[in-house]
């Protein structure tokens, strides 16, 4: 069964460093998402991406964050200058189309980011 | 704004016990409602969903009914198994909305 994959599974970085989290969505999917979960808190939406542009972003997704689909398979989340509060589990998801009520979002296993 | 509140965990039950995990929501219009499950080391998986009032979602013995009058979507299972041990997330998406809004998650432990 097709699945969303994410690398690395765990990333440790120092405050102020740039990190890139990578995701390979399901191959025929057209909508891509990033969510994050700070330990003990809710899973929060960060951004959705369709047709090579951001379709929606949350207030968390400020200028320090960017997303890119550099080729036909990868979908990346970049944090330019990490802060301690960016430590969280980051989940990538993809769906065939928009509207989760109609088209399931499939989630990857997550990347745990630790900022020291 | 839209939000989801679910019961705090962890919940510990013996095998074959009856399970209820409470979930209530706040939303404008007619959201779609979901239960996701996360097994250890894995991503979030859609367990079941309901897209309109009085719909019942069901899968793997789990059920939840979309109750608009009480703004609830409680998860139930008649007889849990050890393999049901996981974290369960109640969630919603608004009408014409692509993002999913999650609750905090409820960790479930089933003892043999």
Spell out the blueprint of helices and strands.
The complex is a heterodimer of chains A (116) and B (112).
Chain A: E1 5-7, E2 10-13, E3 19-24, E4 31-37, E5 43-50, E6 53-57, E7 65-68, E8 75-79, E9 88-95, E10 106-107, E11 111-115
Parallel strand pairs in A: 2-11
Antiparallel strand pairs in A: 1-3, 3-8, 4-5, 4-9, 5-6, 7-8, 9-10, 9-11
Chain B: E1 3-6, E2 11-14, E3 19-21, E4 23-26, E5 32-38, E6 44-50, E7 56-59, E8 62-65, E9 75-77, E10 86-93, E11 101-102, E12 106-111
Parallel strand pairs in B: 2-12
Antiparallel strand pairs in B: 1-4, 3-9, 5-6, 5-10, 7-8, 8-9, 10-11, 10-12
The computed structural class of chain A is mainly beta
Order of helix and strand elements from N to C terminus of chain B: EEEEEEEEEEEE
Oligomerization state: heterodimer
Using the alpha-carbon principal axes, give the shape of chain B. globular
Summarize the structure.
The complex is a heterodimer of chains A (116) and B (112). Chain A has 116 residues and is mainly β.
Which characteristics define this entry?
heterodimer, A: 116 residues, mainly beta, four-stranded antiparallel β-sheet, 49% strand, globular, B: 112 residues, 50% strand
Characterise the protein shown here.
By secondary structure, chain A is mainly β. Helix content of chain A is 0%, strand content 49%. Chain A is built from no helices and eleven strands. Chain A has strands at 5-7, 10-13, 19-24, 31-37, 43-50, 53-57, 65-68, 75-79, 88-95, 106-107, 111-115. In chain A, the strands form two sheets. In chain A, strands 2, 4, 5, 6, 9, 10 and 11 form a seven-stranded mixed sheet that branches. Chain A has a four-stranded antiparallel sheet with strand order 1-3-8-7, with no helix packed on it. The model of chain A has no long low-confidence stretch (mean pLDDT 94). Chain B has 112 residues and is mostly beta strands. Chain B is built from no helices and twelve strands. In chain B, strands 2, 5, 6, 10, 11 and 12 form a six-stranded mixed sheet that branches. A four-stranded antiparallel sheet of chain B has the order 3-9-8-7, with no helix packed on it. A two-stranded antiparallel sheet of chain B has the order 1-4. The radius of gyration of chain B is 13 Å and the shape is globular. The mean pLDDT of chain B is 94. The A-B interface holds A 3-4, 31, 33, 35, 40-45, 48, 55-56, 58, 91, 93, 98-102, 104-110 and B 32, 34, 36, 41-46, 49, 51, 89, 91, 93, 96-105.
């Amino acid at each position: 069964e097709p699945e969303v994959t994410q690398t690395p599974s765990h990333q440790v970085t120092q405050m102020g460093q740039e990190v890139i989290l990578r995701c390979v969505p399901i191959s025929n999917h057209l909508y891509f998402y990033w969510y994050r979960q700070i330990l003990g808190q809710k899973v929060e939406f960060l951004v959705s991406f369709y047709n090579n542009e951001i379709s929606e972003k949350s207030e968390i997704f400020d200028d320090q964050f960017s997303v890119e689909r550099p080729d036909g398979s990868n979908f990346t989340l970049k944090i330019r200058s990490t802060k301690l509060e960016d430590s969280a589990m980051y989940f990538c998801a993809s769906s065939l189309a928009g509207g989760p009520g109609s088209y399931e979002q499939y989630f990857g296993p997550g990347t745990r980011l630790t900022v020291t | 704004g839209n939000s989801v509140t679910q019961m705090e965990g962890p919940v510990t039950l013996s095998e074959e016990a009856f399970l209820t995990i409470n979930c209530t929501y706040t939303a404008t219009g007619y959201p779609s409602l979901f239960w996701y499950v996360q097994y250890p080391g894995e991503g979030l998986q859609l367990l079941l969903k309901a897209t309109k009032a009085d719909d019942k979602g069901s899968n793997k013995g789990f059920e939840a009914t979309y109750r608009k009058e009480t703004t609830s979507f409680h998860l139930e299972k008649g007889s849990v198994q050890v393999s049901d041990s996981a974290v369960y997330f109640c969630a919603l998406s608004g009408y014409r909305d692509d993002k999913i809004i999650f609750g905090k998650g409820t960790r479930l432990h089933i003892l043999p």
